[in-house]
UniProtKB/TrEMBL annotation:
Keywords: Exocytosis, Transport. Residues 57-226 form the Exocyst complex component EXOC6/Sec15 N-terminal domain. Pfam families: EXOC6_Sec15_N (PF20651), Sec15_C (PF04091). This is Exocyst complex component. GO terms for biological process: Golgi to plasma membrane transport; intracellular protein transport; vesicle tethering involved in exocytosis. InterPro entries: EXOC6/Sec15, EXOC6/Sec15_C, EXOC6/Sec15_C_dom1, EXOC6_Sec15_N, EXOC6PINT-1/Sec15/Tip20_C_dom2. The keyword Transport applies. Component of the exocyst complex involved in the docking of exocytic vesicles with fusion sites on the plasma membrane. It comes from the Eukaryota.
Length: 810
C-alpha cells in the first residue's frame, strides 16, 4: 500500500473509533517497515487533541512491553546465577594455570635467547645474501649497457660514426629498456641525441671537405679519365690498322694520311708515359669517397637521408655552375680549353661513380638533367669562344679535345650527339680559318712567282716538277735538255697547297663518327670553297694589280689552263684518300673548271684593257704638226714604236689559246683605229692642213701593213685590216677629193665610202676649211679655180643637210 493509501485508511479508522484506531496505528507502527510519516501525520492532523491521546496510548503500550520483558528476565534469572557460580569456581584454576604458563614462558624465554641471537644472525646473513644476489643480478643487467656505452665512446673517438650509430640503436632498442629505472641510464638516454647531432655535424663537415677536395682535383680526375679514353681509342685505331694491313684493306693510298691520322689522335697534349711503368689509375685511386659513403650511411641511420640528398645535389649543382664558367681568355690557348674540359669530365666522372655505388643519392634522372644543363652551357661557351679563334691549328686542337671529351663522357653513358653537331659548326669555322690562311699562302705564292716558264736543265729537275704537279706532254718529253715547262713556278706550288688544304680539312673530318661517303662529301665541298672563293679571289686580285703586265697576264692564263686540267687529278686524290668510288656513289664534283675559266676570262679582259691602255700611252706621245704643208715622207716615230711593241706582245701571245690571241689583236687594232679617229675629230683640234692629213695617212698605212702581216695567226683574209676601214675610207675621201662620188653614192650598199659618216666628214672638212682661210693654203687654188671653192661650199652645205637629215630621222 502506498503512503497516500495508508494515510487515507488511518484517517477513516480514527473517525470510526478513536481508541481502537490508536491501537491500530500503534500496531501499524510496530509492524510496517515502510516510512511512518503518513501514519503519524494522520494522528496529528486529524483532531486537535489526538496527539495527547496518542501519547497516552503509546505510554500504555510501552508499559505493557516493559512488563513482558520483566517476566522474561525473571524466568531466566536462576540459570544466570548458576552460570556465575560455575565461573567463580573456574577462576581459581585459571589463576593457577596462568602462574604455570607464566613460569613456563619465562623458562622457555630464557632457554631460547641464544637461539634468537643465532636466528637473528642467520636472518641478517640471509638478507645480505639476498641483497648481494640482487646486486649481482642488477650489475649483470647494467654491465652490458656500460660496456656498450664505453664501446660507443671508443667508436666516437676513433671516428667510426656509422658503427657508433648502430651501437646507439642497440642501446636504445635492447639495453636501455632493461635498466631504464636507473638514473645513469636516463643520463645516457639524454646524451644520445647530442651525440647524434655531433655525428651529423662531423659527417657534414667531412662531406664539405670532400666536396672542396673534388672541386680542386676535378681537373686531375678528368685528365686521367680522358687519358684513359685516349689510350683506349689509340689502341683501337692501331688494332684496326693492323687488321687492315693483315687483310690488305688499306683505306688510304698515300702513306701520309695514316701517319698524320695517328698524329692527330696522339696530339691531344697529355703527358704520355710508358704503360708498363705507369699503373692505370681509376677514380677510386684518385678520390677517397669514404666521406660520402659515411655521411650517406649516417643520414640513412638517422632517418634524414632526404635532407642529405638535397644538400649534396644542391652543392654539386653550385659546383657544376662554377666548373661550367670558363675563363675569359680561354680561347687564346689550347691549355685553356683543356683545363675547361678536364674539370667538366672530372665532375661528371665523380657523379657517375656516385650513381653506381650509392642508392638514391644520385639518380639517373638527376644526372641526365644535370648533364643536359651542362651540355647546353658547354655548347654555348664553345660556340662563343671558338668564334674568336683565327688559327686553324688551334681550332683543330680544339676539335680533338672535343672529340676526346665527347668519347670520354660517352663511355660513362652520357649522350654527346649535340657535341658532334657542334663540331660541324666548328668545322665550318675551321674551314673559314683554313681559307683565310690559304688565301695568305696563295698571295705569297703569287708574289714570289716570276711569271715565266719553269726552266729545267736535266732529268732530275724534270722529275721533281712532275712529282709535284701532274703534267703530261709527249712533245715536251721528247725535247732535249734544257727545256721549259709552259707554266710558271706558282702552278705546282698551288697544286701542292690545294692538296695540303685537303689534308688539313681531312684532319678535322676524322673522328667525327661519320661515314667515308660523308667525309668525302665534306672534303669536296671545302675544296670547292677553296677553289671558287679563295683561289678565285686571289687570282682576280692578282689580275687587277697595277704592276701585273701583259706578259704576266699571259702567263696567268697559261697557268690557269694547266690548273684547270689538274682538277681531275684532285678529284682522284680525294677519291683515293676516302676510298669512295666515283662509279658507285654519287659524289660532289669540283668546281675548279669554272673557277679557272672565270679567272682566265678576267685575265683576258685585263689583257684587252691593259693592251688598250698601252696603246693609249703610245698615242699620247703623238706630236703631229696639224698645220704642216707637206708630209715627212715616213711614218711617225710613236706609231712605229707602238707597232713594234704590238709585234713583240703578239709574239708572247703564241702560247695563248688561238681565240684569245686573235681577240686581243683585233681589240688592239680596233682600239688603235678608234684612238686615231678620235685624234682627228678632237674638239680641241681646230684646224688641219692637207699635209697633216697626208702624214696621218702614212701612219694609217703602217697600221694596215701591220694588220696585213698577220701578227697573230688564224685570221681569214683581210679581217684584221677591216679594223682600220673607217679611217681608210675617210682619208681616201679627202686625199682623192672625191666628194661627188661620196655624195652621189651615199646610202648605197655598194658605196665606195660606205663607212664614212657625214658628220665625221663635215667635222674634218670644216677643220680644213678653217685652215685654208687662215693660212691661205688654197689661195692659189681659189685664184685658178674658183669653181672648186664653190664646190667646197656646196659640199659643206650638202653634208650639213645630210647630218640634219640624220638627226631628224633619228
Amino acid at each position: 500500500m502506498s503512503a497516500a493509501g495508508k494515510s487515507g485508511a488511518c484517517e477513516a479508522m480514527l473517525e470510526e473509533d478513536p481508541d481502537q484506531n490508536y491501537e491500530n496505528v500503534l500496531a501499524e507502527i510496530q509492524s510496517f517497515e515502510l516510512p511512518i510519516e503518513a501514519t503519524l501525520r494522520s494522528v496529528y492532523d486529524d483532531q486537535p487533541n489526538a496527539h495527547k491521546k496518542f501519547m497516552e496510548k503509546l505510554d500504555a503500550c510501552i508499559r505493557n512491553h516493559d512488563k513482558e520483558i520483566e517476566k522474561m528476565c525473571n524466568f531466566h534469572h536462576q540459570g544466570f546465577v548458576d552460570a556465575i557460580t560455575e565461573l567463580l569456581k573456574v577462576r581459581t584454576d585459571a589463576e593457577k594455570l596462568k602462574v604455570q604458563v607464566t613460569d613456563t614462558n619465562r623458562r622457555f624465554q630464557d632457554a631460547g635467547k641464544e637461539v634468537i641471537v643465532q636466528t637473528e644472525d642467520i636472518i641478517r646473513c640471509r638478507i645480505q645474501q639476498r641483497n648481494i644476489t640482487m646486486v649481482v643480478e642488477k650489475l649483470q643487467l647494467c654491465l652490458p649497457v656500460l660496456e656498450m656505452y664505453s664501446k660507443l665512446k671508443e667508436q666516437m673517438s676513433a671516428k667510426r660514426y656509422y658503427s657508433a650509430l648502430k651501437t646507439m640503436e642497440q642501446l636504445e632498442n635492447v639495453f636501455f629498456p632493461r635498466v631504464s629505472q636507473y638514473r645513469f641510464c636516463q643520463l645516457m638516454i639524454e646524451n644520445l641525441p647530442k651525440l647524434r647531432e655531433d655525428i651529423k655535424e662531423i659527417s657534414m663537415s667531412d662531406l664539405k671537405d670532400f666536396l672542396e677536395s673534388i672541386r680542386k682535383h676535378s681537373d686531375k680526375i678528368g685528365e686521367t679519365a680522358m687519358k684513359q679514353a685516349q689510350q683506349q681509342k689509340t689502341f683501337s685505331v692501331v688494332l684496326q690498322k693492323q687488321n687492315n694491313i693483315k687483310f690488305g684493306k688499306n683505306v688510304y693510298i698515300n702513306d701520309r694520311i695514316p701517319e698524320e691520322r695517328n698524329e692527330v689522335e696522339l696530339k691531344y697534349g697529355f703527358e704520355e708515359e710508358d704503360e708498363n711503368e705507369e699503373e692505370v689509375l681509376t677514380v677510386q685511386d684518385l678520390v677517397d669517397f669514404s666521406p660520402v659513403y659515411r655521411c650517406l650511411h649516417i643520414h640513412s641511420v638517422l632517418g634524414d637521408e632526404e635532407t642529405f640528398e638535397n644538400y649534396y645535389r644542391k652543392q654539386r649543382k653550385k659546383q657544376a655552375r662554377l666548373v661550367l664558367q670558363p675563363q675569359s681568355n680561354m680561347h687564346e690557348t689550347v691549355d685553356g680549353y683543356r683545363r675547361y674540359f678536364t674539370q667538366i669530365v672530372g665532375f661528371f666522372v665523380v657523379e657517375d661513380h656516385i650513381l653506381h655505388v650509392t642508392q638514391g643519392l644520385v639518380t639517373r634522372a638527376y644526372t641526365d638533367e644535370l648533364w643536359n644543363m651542362a651540355l647546353s652551357k658547354i655548347i654555348a661557351v664553345l660556340r662563343a669562344h671558338s668564334s674568336y679563334c683565327t688559327d686553324p691549328d688551334l681550332v683543330l686542337e680544339l676539335k680533338n679535345l672535343i672529340v676526346i671529351f665527347a668519347d670520354t663522357l660517352q663511355g660513362y653513358g652520357f649522350p654527346v650527339n649535340r657535341l658532334f653537331d657542334l663540331l660541324f659548326e666548328i668545322r665550318d669555322q675551321y674551314n673559314e680559318t683554313l681559307l683565310k690562311k690559304w688565301a695568305g699562302v696563295f698571295r705569297d705564292i703569287f708574289e714570289e712567282d716570276n711569271y715565266s716558264p719553269i726552266p729545267i736543265v736535266n732529268e732530275e729537275e724534270y722529275k721533281v716538277v712532275i712529282s709535284k704537279f701532274p703534267f703530261q706532254d709527249p712533245d715536251l718529253e721528247k725535247q732535249s735538255f734544257p727545256k721549259k715547262f709552259p707554266m710558271s713556278q706558282s702552278v705546282p706550288h698551288i697544286y701542292i697547297q690545294v692538296k695540303e688544304f685537303i689534308y688539313a680539312s681531312l684532319k678535322f673530318s676524322e673522328s667525327l663518327h661519320r661515314s667515308s661517303t660523308e667525309i668525302d662529301d665534306m672534303l669536296r665541298k671545302s675544296t670547292n670553297l677553296l677553289l671558287t672563293r679563295t683561289l678565285s679571289s686571289c687570282l682576280l686580285n692578282l689580275i687587277r694589280k697595277p704592276h701585273i703586265g701583259l706578259t704576266e697576264l699571259v702567263q696567268i692564263i697559261i697557268n690557269t689552263t694547266h690548273l684547270e686540267q689538274a682538277c681531275k687529278y684532285l678529284e682522284d686524290f680525294i677519291t683515293n684518300i676516302t676510298n669512295i668510288s666515283q662509279e658507285t656513289v654519287h659524289t660532289t664534283r669540283l668546281y675548279g673548271l669554272s673557277t679557272f675559266k672565270d679567272a682566265r676570262h678576267a685575265a683576258e679582259g685585263e689583257i684587252y684593257t691593259k693592251l688598250n691602255q698601252k696603246i693609249d700611252e703610245f698615242v699620247q706621245l703623238a706630236d703631229y704638226d696639224w698645220t704642216m704643208s707637206e708630209p715627212d715622207g715616213r711614218a711617225s716615230g710613236y706609231l712605229m714604236d707602238l707597232i713594234n711593241f704590238l709585234r713583240s706582245i703578239f709574239q708572247v701571245f703564241t702560247h695563248l689559246p688561238g681565240k684569245v690571241a686573235q681577240t686581243a689583236c683585233m681589240s688592239a687594232c680596233q682600239h688603235l683605229s678608234t684612238s686615231l679617229m678620235q685624234m682627228l675629230l678632237d674638239n680641241e683640234l681646230k684646224q688641219i692642213s692637207m699635209g697633216a692629213v697626208q702624214q696621218f695617212n702614212l701612219d694609217v698605212i703602217q697600221c694596215e701593213l701591220f694588220a696585213s702581216s698577220e701578227p697573230v695567226p688564224g685570221f681569214q683574209g683581210d679581217t684584221l685590216q677591216l679594223a682600220f676601214i673607217d679611217l681608210r675610207q675617210l682619208l681616201d675621201l679627202f686625199m682623192v677629193w672625191d666628194w661627188s662620188t661620196y655624195l652621189a653614192d651615199y646610202g648605197q650598199p655598194a658605196s665606195k665610202y660606205l663607212r664614212v659618216n657625214p658628220n665625221t666628214a663635215l667635222t674634218l672638212l670644216e677643220k680644213m676649211k678653217d685652215t685654208s682661210k687662215k693660212n691661205n693654203i688654197f689661195a692659189q687654188f681659189r685664184k685658178n679655180d674658183r669653181d672648186k671653192q664653190k664646190l667646197i661650199e656646196t659640199v659643206v652645205k650638202q653634208l650639213r643637210s645630210l647630218v640634219n637629215g640624220m638627226s631628224q630621222h633619228t
